[in-house]
Batch of 2 targets.
Target 1
Amino acid sequence: MTNSINELEKDATAVFLIGTNTTENHPIIGYKIRKNVRYNGAKLIVADPRNIELADIADVYLQFRPGTDVALVNAMMNVIITEGLDAKDFIANRTENYEQVAEVVKKYTPEYAAEICGVDAEDIRKAARIYATAERGSICYAMGVTQHSTGTDNVKTMCNLALLTGNLGKAGTGVNPLRGQNNVQGACDMGALPVSYPAYQAVTNPDIRAKFEKAWGVPLSPNNGLTIPDVVNKAHHGEIKGLMVFGENPMVSDPDITHVSESLDNLELLIVQDIFLTETAMKADVVFPGVTFAEKNGTFSNTERRVQRVRQAITPKGDAHPDWQIICELSNRLGYPMNYSSPEEIFEEIRTVTPSYAGINYQRIDNTGIHWPCPNEEHPGTPILHGEKFNRGLGLFHAIEFKEPYELPDAEYPLILSTGRSLFHYHTGTMTRRSSALNEFMPSNVVQINPETAAALNIVDNEKVKLVTRRGSIEVNAQVTEMVPAGVVFTFFHFSEAAANILTQAEVFDPVAKIPEYKVSAARIDKI
Amino acid sequence: MITLTINGKEIQVPKGTMVLDACQQAGADIPTLCYDPDLRLAGSCRMCVVEAKGRPNLMAACVSPAENGMVIETESPDVVESRKIILELLLARHKLECHTCERDGSCKLQDYCYRYGVTDSRYLNEMPHFSKEDPNPFIKRDYDKCIMCTKCVRVCEEITGAQAINVEDRGHHAKISTVFDGKLADSTCVFCGQCVMVCPVGALTSKVSAGKGRSYQTQSVLTTCTYCGTGCTFELNVKDDHVVGVTSVRDSELSPVNKGALCVKGRFGWDFIESEDRLTTPLIKENGELRPASWDEALDFAANKIKEIKAKNGPDALALFSSARATNEENYLAQKLFRAAIGTNNVDHCARL
Amino acid sequence: MAEEMRVLLEYADKINPEIADEYVKIGGYVGLEKARKMDPNDLIQEVRSSGLRGRGGAGFNAGMKWSFVPKNAEIKYVVCNLDEGEPGTYKDRIICEKNAQALLEGMAICGAAIDSNQGYIYCRGEYPFIVKLLKNAIKSAKELGALGDFNIEVRMGAGAYVCGEETALIESIEGHRGEPRFKPPFPGVAGLWGVPTVVNNVETFACLPSILTNGAAWFAGIGAAKYPGTKVLTLTGDTNNPTYFEVPTDYILRDVIYKLGGGVKGGKKLKAVQVGGTSGAFIPESNLDTPIDFDSMGAIGAALGSGAVFVMDETRDIVDIVSRISKFFEHESCGKCNPCREGTFRCREIMEKINSGKATQKDIDNILLLSRVMKKAALCGLGQAAPIPIESTIKHFADEYARKIV
Amino acid sequence: MADYKDIIASCKDQKGGIIEAFHALQQEFNYIPREALTEAARVFGISEAQAYGVATFYSYLSVEKRGKYIIRMCESAPCHVAGADELLKAIEKELSIKVGETTSDGKFTLELTECVGQCQATPVITINSEPLFNVTAEVLPQVLSAYK
């Protein structure tokens, strides 16, 4: 997030939610937005194919066709420019490449986009006006925007919209991806990415590489590494021989599980380090028992870049070891000594190679976490990015054309399938399926179907059906609900026994971010 | 600034300060049941009444603005008498089963009865019978213990925004209910348990923690939630080296993102930690079956295999899927392991999924 | 002096209250016209100096109340309290049935004083026919142009005595549970939908036209000096003449009962009289020579309240009646605050126990203690007043209780 | 019967007018049907739980089905001393129902009420809000026979 969470409760006078079912997937953030709307009169625009809870209190609700984000937002920009609502000073002083965007969005009139997106042109105008005329407008999005073959385009379009209206760098504004996992921000910050060391320092940059070679005392590879989908594919081809999976469960979370399974089976070595014998761990050659967040010390960095403490409450179960110790042990056996006495000592090393974390230490975040960047110990942290200038200097507009999703419905697979999360479960269910109350409340998967679609298919609520795509099929109960529009079906990916990712596509990714297109697959429903 | 006298002590407070805050500033501990600084004021429990000189009635400190020249007594005979009688009235409607109550030891009604020496109620006669089983796995609702502070209604409406509950009926028949007094699961309740957080007595408790330990038997450890990326903080309740519950931290310094508010997963989804299914020993695959192994055996096995592959196919034949669930420290070490110890940048995690 | 003095009800049954024109013909809407020409400050001052005090119960100077309304507020409301729920009271209904236009005119005068063009009448749910009457009366007045730009909307309650409390009434107009708000803020500062609101009773508003027409000094000269004007009373219980009267405020209670009321029914002796509705104190025969005005009543521990006068003859069982009254408060407590919700419930329990002859002196002590706490700690007037009949009867009719306890 | 949606819609311009809508619904149905309460909550922008709280607060509103004619017996002190208790017993006997119940033919529901402001002619009962004066046990059957 460019901005902090609490600004959504107090400072934002308009919030544009797109592709985020906030009250279910980031409940506390959702509650704050709702509070701001109800009690402070903040305006709310919700763009989501599903009629999510927050749509009920939205000033404008755009129930658009999955995958048409760029057309929708380009049309909003068209309205803003046409009606002279753009932030001319901000554009002139702080951005570049505006003209190209202005040129591209010309053809995206609300009527043109309305046709593509399946919404009312007037609603696009309303949404554009609300966001553009708000004193402080915030954009929040989640996987609904990113999990597309055009995910990067979608995100860039959101940035364009914020740049166009000057909604950056102030409290209550910003472009705010709501990140789905407790420490996905931190994992990225720490360089758990194939192209960067900690703090997004490129592995291909010789100066940076030299810095890390010095810090770590060994020569380092100059080449970008592989992303998860590439690793899976290369394992399939036999080029990747050994894989260590640490606290992940690709056998549930990754696209086209059949393909993933074959890839993992093809490995010479699969090491899995986890707290449960996950679907992935069952395939492992060796399994290391790690511990939960309750059994170790450390830090998590949340979606607003706030680095916070995790504290050990109990001793590790059985002979499980804190994960950091396991990694050290393994490293020592590989001839690269890692001898840390505590997570705090590791954190002290992190600070020396991670400029954005340099000013943070355990004492400073003992009570209240600090937002990075925090370059030194006197620095209070940075809840709001891009205040005076952007990292690259000027904010760069990207002219983006709308592209259709890869797999569109056809006669054989007439429905659009999207996948996502429920309030009551988390990710691959490793933890929540083993939480007694959560699993009792929601013990199995469902597929959400609009009543119209259900009627056409002669399907009633709670009926067990077969959900089929070109990759495979699962059997789930139908949940007939107005939450999804006609022609769109939605299912959850938490349930390994009816795994949504049997259905999703492994061959289609966003070309830049390598994110799978979980939000659009062509599907059909068969009666059983 | 205005000046007022509290228990004979003159203090200055900014205009607009409530008498309750002024009293606290003056070191007077005012009992409250319906007051919550994060919620709309109710002024209804009347436990916080104080005596202001020259006023015919007692005033509820939580809803009365301090005025210049006020002379206030916080434990005068009239005040103490009123608080005692209010406590007796509440006791007369409160199912007294402290011996099995989850909130024994962390119950405001109990605390105040102790403080004012209220042993029993002279008004004990007919008891209300509001409780009925609500079949949900999260929240136990025992309204025979409810003292009608309405904090649950307000927190549901104002913090969570679910608006699932309200006061039904009126007068002595008034009770907390969902629409048509139905099950929580059939209402707009999202089981965030904010109502459990604010309940001052044992009317609303966690079913997941039931019977596992009371507040005085547990230690609390402040930590950060392991689910979504919001970064809520809470306390893990620990008894005999087991996690037995999650409680909220209302302090905005200790809970800067959520101020004690949680979602259903954060508040009720912690017992996987104690699951029987936990992996407690290393495993090695032998003849297609995973079997327990010692740490040395497992680590040596992994290290040797890695070395072998690296020697044969180069470091780029190896890859790491790191974890968005693990700590920064662990992710740092994991990528360092692959980059420095093995020599490949094939490091990724499931940020996209 | 033992005559009625009819000001509000002067033309009772002589004009049709629904027809503004008939009211105009007897001099109606002259006061409003006069008020509209005055500077609002002068108008407030005029009302203030008339000495008109609220006829609803609290007896607050009406002009003074209006003067608290912030001048700079953009939106303000005038609200009429027609929720007369005090048992034995129906004088606001009579005023509407006989002279509804005076109420409308009075509200518009208040509107002119505080610069508001929107009024609400909150009529109790027991009076749907009055709602109809008022709607017709408003329509007629609007059609005649008598109210100018002042609009009045009628809202109907739904059976809740507590909504006679002004903040509960406001909550009810807003569509909420009729639970009283804590004060401050007072409605004059933050009332209906959070904006400054004047809430007055029907009778208070209905006094205004004559004050404007005849002058403040005229009004101030009627009745008791500190509570001038007339008061509409309703006589119930063991009276020969159960009806309504309008009398000057220095009229004494004995004359109400014996002259206007024609004495106690059946020629029996009087045991007690309860003034001001069911929350009023029980007054023994010895205090009958008290004038009915607010302060004189207050001096004997009673209250003029709504102007209901409930007569009980020598055969009446005081404990039984108070027991019934305690049931009323149990039923009407909104349940918001502890002393009232629990207190009214326990009061009823104990009163029934006493009434059934099973109670001891300990129960009397307990109910007196509870009464004391309710009076000083309850949130609103309902809980504070509920114990008054109990306390006053234990004080003045101790022997009735003594007879019933074991 | 009129559609509850139309009834509610006719009140929607009255700010905060959900109680007015409830009255209008009761005019038609004599109680507030569940689906109507849900609709009213939606129209007036409050939660169902809030609407339910309002509907159950006021003694003249009911969320439970009631008879065609709602008899309310005033119990307040002036009616009490005029013999309300005896009259109540007579009504219960005459209709063979207790307070809060509805006759088996769905015609009468008996409720208690506090003062209805007609104390010039006690005891008072109301039938569908119309006050009836000086009702005694003797005249009761005749009074009720007027309601078909």
Target 2
Amino acid sequence: MIKRLIPLLLVISLFFILLKVATNVAPNYDLTGVAKTYAEQGASDLGAMNLVTAIVVTYRGLDTLGEVTVLFMAGTGIALLLRRKKKKNDSGIKNRAASEILKTGSKLLVPIITMFGAYIFINGHLSPGGGFQGGAAIASAVMLMFLADSSFKINHKVFVLIESFSGIFYVLIGVLGLVILGADNFLDNRILPLGTFGTILSAGTIPLIYTLVGLKVGTELASILDNMKGELE
Amino acid sequence: MNITTIVHITGFALILIGFWGMLTQKNMIKIILGLAIVETGVQLVMVAFGFIDGRTAPILDSAVELSKASSLIVDPVPQALVLTAIVIGVAVNALMLTFVIRLYQQKKSLSINDYKDLKW
Amino acid sequence: MVNPIYIIAILLGLGFLLPSINKAGIKVTVTIFFLGIIAVTAISYQWLSAFLIDGQQAVQIFTAGFKPPMSINLQMGLNEAVLITLINFGALLGAIYSFKYFAENGIQALVVFLLFILGMNGLVLTRDIFNIFVFLEITSIATYILIGMDLRLKSLSAGFKYMIAGGIASVFLLLGIILIYSKTGTLNLDGMIAAVSAAGSSQILFVGVFILIFSVVIELKVFPANGWALDVYEGSDTGISAMISATSATALLFVLYKVLPLASIDLTKMIVIIGVLTFVVSNLFAIMQKSTNRLLGYSSIGQIGLLVFVIASKDILGDNFEKIFFGLLISHFLAKAGLFWLSGIVKAEKIQDWVKIKKHPILIFMFGTFILALMGFPPFPSLAAKWSLVMILAENGSFLWISLVILASILEVLYLFRWFGYILKLEDSEEKVEKPQHQLHPVYIVTLLLYVAGFYITRSFDAGLSINFIPLAFVGILFLIDFLPVYIKNTLVMIAVSYYGYILVPGLDTLKLIFALIFLVGGILTFIPGYSVKGKRIGFYPVAAMMYVGLIGLIEAETFFQFFFAWEIMTAGSYFLILRGKRSMSHALSYILFSAGGAYLILFGFALSGAETGSILLTSLSEVHIYATMVFILLALGFMTKTASIGLHIWLPGAHAEAESDVSPMVSAVLLKAGVFGLIILFIAMRNNDVSNLFYILGWVGAITALLGNLIASFQEDAKKLLAYSSIAQLGYILFALAIMTNVGWLAAIWYSITHFLYKALLFLAVGAIVLKLKTHKMYEMGGLIKKMPMSFISVLIGIIALSGVPPLAGFGGKWLLYNAFILKGWYFQGAIIAFSGVVAFLYLFKLIYSIFLGPIKDKHRKMTEVSVWYLIPQYLIIATLMVLSSKPRMILEKVGLYFKEILPENTVVWNGDAASTFVNGKLFGVWDPFYIMIIVCVMFAVLLGFLLFASRKATKVEMFNIVYSAERPESPQTAHFSYNMFSHYRKALGFLVLPLVTNFWNFITDLFHSSSDFFRKFYNGNAQVYIMHIIGFVVFFYFILNGGIF
Amino acid sequence: MTRMDDLKKRTVTAPDGEVFTVDPMKEYFCDKRPEVQEPAHPLLEKFFNWARSNSLWVLGWGTGCGSIELPPLTTPRFDMFRYGVQMRPTPRQAGVFIISGYLAVKTLKRVIRAYEQMQGPKYIIALGSCTINGGMYYDSFNTINRLDHYIPVDVYITGCMPRPEAILSGFVELKKRIRAGKAEGANDYAERFDWYKANQKKVIKGWDMPDYNW
Amino acid sequence: MELTLTSRILYSLLGLFIVFNYGLLQSGVMRKIVARVAGRYGIPVYQSYFDIIKNLAKRSQITHGIMFYLGPIFRLGGGIGLFLFMPMIFGSIYFKNFSFTGDIVLLMYFQFFGMLGMALGAGEAGHPNSTIGISRGLAQFTTVEISFTLAIIAIAIQYQTLSVYNIVAAQQGGILHWTLFQNPVATLAGMLSFLGIMRHAPFNVVMAPQEIPIGPPTEYHSTYLGMLQSNRAILHIVESALFMNLFFGGATNWIEFIVKTFFIYFTTVFVGVVFPRYRVDQSVAWFVKVPLVIGVLGVIYATYIN
């Protein structure tokens, strides 16, 4: 009884805290503060149609860099934690083969999904989506392959290289801002021309960055999946 | 009852449900799920805070007139934040599950009560 | 200046790079890894030096080419520069310490560590609230991985608990951010702070700010939401624990510092409470802790609690905030990192197992450095910081906080010094300590840095400028040359003390001169026996010199801080000295506990005084009026712990008795006078401050101390304990005499101080040398040694005659002055008690000399020879001094009387030739002519001795069993030695006076703390789910308090 | 350890670890022979003897049944104090030793010790027949028959038991002897020390004392 | 008129001679009185002379070591010192001795001079009974000192001086000026402590001849004992004189001195023959009860009338 009572009390207490918020939420009628500035200047400053992307990649680029770092680190960490012993006995349990539907379906779908992912991150500054979303889509393609073929292995070396260099280039692009534009321009997308508003090759480095992010996220998530899919012991 | 309020209430409810799960479930994976639910709730609340009834997404395409953009779109900032929050949440959850995998290998138990070696 | 963005870029870039160059081999990877850390350290140091040396102004660094609030900005100011330098350098050392461990676990570990550093740098630099969240997550995730990567059950479960807690904290943080954002429309901290303070009362902001700040506070591991943190400290690898405790805590503290301006006054107060509570509770729980790393964890959390308190009290602390914060932080940072690393080197699960470093003086030295730095002993930065903290709190009337901080500090002293005692005093274990060089170097470096930081930070305080560091440097040199043989070091120390005296003495007034002479001459005299020691005597000379440095510092002190600084040095030095005794572990601990308690009371008293008068001069005590009673009580109690007045005396007997033979006179004859000196300073300053009632009470305390001290001494079987209790009583006389507050009373006090110094040094040297030789303290195991050690016997004889106050030796002067003083003052009954206790002294003095020297000699002492000549030399120097002083006390007393005449004009002593007399209303009151008395007694003695020698010239010298024993003979020497329980009849009659009430009281107090510690720490039951409850409960509890109810 | 063993040689360890032998018989006792104490100048000696005779301090030790007759001496009826006779509790201070009646060998050992610890000049008054010839215990295996074979006697008081009056007259007799300078028992004991010792050792079995008890 | 040092020494020696002989005779007389009360004839009053001469004339002697000598020396030195530091005859420049060198505090602590020496000498003798006696003596003396101190404090309050000479001076001018009448309570306290100081029955368990054959001086004999006896003679008179000076108006001539000290000393003998002996713990406890209370009352009384 008491074991349930304390959680109950705590959750009720939390409820009251949230209740206070809920009862005091006033619906917004207008943009305020920084959002308004973004809405008014975002397009002209950065040349990105998607304001969220503008914010994510440039205005709050440092956050995104951090975000990428977090994901990278999670991948690294998972690899570290789930590292396997060198001596691996392959004669272990044979995984059951996937069904024919899955195999065939995946063969059909994987290229499409991958392409869709690439589309998402390349068009991140124009339409909803971006590097993370695209990366996730690519990773889901890899996952599908794992499901379809138990013996499927990703090429770790390539993945690592992609991961590393997309990250490094991302950082380098940021640093280029410092080098080209000045001390306050880390991650500034304007080291490349902003181009024509609304086209693919616009918004300076945003598409480039999102491409790198997309590659990076895709490979990282795929590596995480690879690590977590088992074959331990 | 407009859409913002509904999302708010849903978000808060998810937070409470998540916490309830964390506080009452003994299975570590369920606790992680509880946390994930809380995160989701928070993310919903965040998005809801940026939402303005009757406006469109912050994408300045043909639907939005550039000069009047600030009166036509919802707040883009919470959306940007949520994006980051989701990614970080994913990373943390993945890592937590990794820990659970490793813990399970050591003790063959998923109950949180079995990991009390360190105390006092 | 290198743009601090490069720190982020370098760390990130290398982090991304390392996995891809795995092929190049571990050496290359590690090299790059270190180059990266060194580079960022260099960048941060460059900024630091720019701020410190070039006076650079704080700069804002924007990103993406936009100004905040549109984009994220970083700030690089002095605070940030200090912190990132600290963090990066700490991380560099941590990396050196742990890189092998990292490399064993894979290249990824190096990457994670780099990103860990990145996270902390980001936390410090960024000025954007959401960016803080991101960097917080980077730091946390890196920490989780570092904790869990060795895949032990312990570290994994600890890591899991940490992740759950971190997860909850981060959702709270997110919620808080969005709530605040929804009201302020910005994520930039500065804008947010401005908007929040402009917004007025808003419920959403209220909840938002609360949740935001509490999420940071939870990350800071405050009580009670910190069960997981302890498990983390205990479960992780020590290198990681060190990083969590030092670097990441530093970064998180700075986050709190940055977000706290958002908080309302009430919320800030709440954080203050939480901080203090954490400091107190962690230290309380720590006292029952046996596991090394968990103990360090408790200590860490306690220190962080204190720092949280400091941050939350920023407004109160004002200009001094930075110094206090950095003073405490740097001490904690370096010391805790050092301790965790040391723990990793020692590899001892339980603190008792640390005894295996007993044979490694360098490790012990470093350990001692760390714990002293943690507790705030000089010369470490924390001392000045704590000092300023208490001073400023007192100015603001926050007495409760002061009391709690002091309480927690004492608890800290308890467990840290107990640990130190275990190291030095437990049975040596067979285990060897492996000392991997790469792990040791970081520890060396932090040790060194602590001293450097101590010097600079202490000097950065206004009060610290006046500290004379040269003697301390000498102590440091002694530590360095500790490998030299004893006679070199001994000579060196004696020369140094003499030289110091030579330059010090000419400028002193009479009062200070006397105490300076007691300390300096005492120093030289008590060092002489050191020549008899063979070998190196590792660790003795530095700590002994340290004690004397402290003592002399007291003489030189003009300000509160100088006094306190010297006082703490002296305390630490004497503690280490006492700890050197064979069975002194528990006694040294109780010594340091009482001393530390006393020191904190002194600190409190000074703070109160400073708060009222605004002055830092010792003399300003005279201007205290509002707090006069409090100040007086606190300071008097503080000094009385050192003089061991009744109730505060229980540390003394063991400490003095179990100390080494030549240390006992140092601590008994010399050190106790420090308390007397303090009391004199206090009484002089506060004599007119309407505290006469307190003087009256002190008079009684002194009298009762004297009586009980002497009574208990009479019932001792341990020779040195007997002398120790005798010291308690003698100090009781001095306290009584001082409390009389008349000229003659103070003459008595000074005279007692001088003579007690002489005869107690004499007795302790003589008895100590014998104890050393006989290897027993028990008097009933001695006996008959007069034939083997006639020189020692004469010393003791002179000593006890002088002590007992029998004319013509010096002790009588004290009695005579005291009688005059208390009768003229009108303190008849206290005086009667003093007189009575003076007589009781005969009991133990007789027991002492009889049991050791007279009676039958025991078989195993038949071949005993005289004690070492190095012990006899100081004894005979003292005897010569005593004789001169006994016949010509005017030399000193007249000057002292004149000196005190301005302060205390009442009841002066008039000198006529060698005769002293007192007058009442112009009529002769008392008279004393020491020289005449000496002559008469000597002549009489000579005549009678001559007669007897002539009359018994043919006497037959007989042996010990040639006694009339009812026409029988004794069975053995033991049966004829009436020593054990000699005053049983006295105990039967008056034993009720010496029931161990005080000991029982203090035992009760310590039991109370220990049992409550043991009971309440069960609160952390190790279940992660319970920890979740703690966290949520913690948040909602304080929320409801802040909210003033549920709604 | 029995009492006999107390005086045997033994090995002890000093606190500093040195091991050595202790011989209690040699080291606990002064083993010097008594010497003849020459009287002072005759005139002075006469004065001293006068004082000695007026200050007879009796060792308060009843060695045998005759001591029952001593306490009455302190009562008003007999009042020995008027003759300058007083009791002293310690042999060191006493000058007169009253052997009161039969003397067991076991007691003799103690008597010898007490007598030797008295300071000369010292006198012995033997009380009752037993001290002269063993009296009714003449054939007892553990009673000595003739006291002056063992210690020098100054005055014998016959009777079994002698009345207090007789003891008083014994004191007077002793006084006379002292004043006449004849009471030199202590010197006699020193002169014929070997003879006395031999006699003593003859009766006392298991002699475990030094030869002379100072 | 001040005496030269030489003549002061000579007069002091003369005074000492008088006191010594008076002491010897007085002890004889006391014992005679006791004997007569008991119905005995008693010793000759000059018996003490015989005893001392006899002891000094002992032919043989032993010594337990150098400290053994210190007992008699300190003891006799203590007696003589006490004599030297005390004014004997008030108003007489000849028998003021060296009382100007110290006051009552000196006298109080000089009492210990002898005790300490005796304790050491007896300790050196190595006889356990001596040590037992010493331990008892010291223990008893500590508590005796309480009421004595309180009485002295009362006197000091009353006469505003510690100098014995001035205390006597303050009591001049008629019998009612004596402390006995000025402060009877303090006097009572003082006299009770006097019983303890003199160590007569009921406070003579220190010597306890039947139990620990006379305690401290067990091993002392011949010359040593002679010195101790001399001291006893002197000390009894000097202690009595001290109490005479403190409580009974002092003495202006030797006749008055003899009469007063005789009666003061007689009180102890009187009490001694009336009361049986206390055990040492009993006497220690007794002194912290009755005389302590009386002493405190004496001080209060002195404060009150002052």
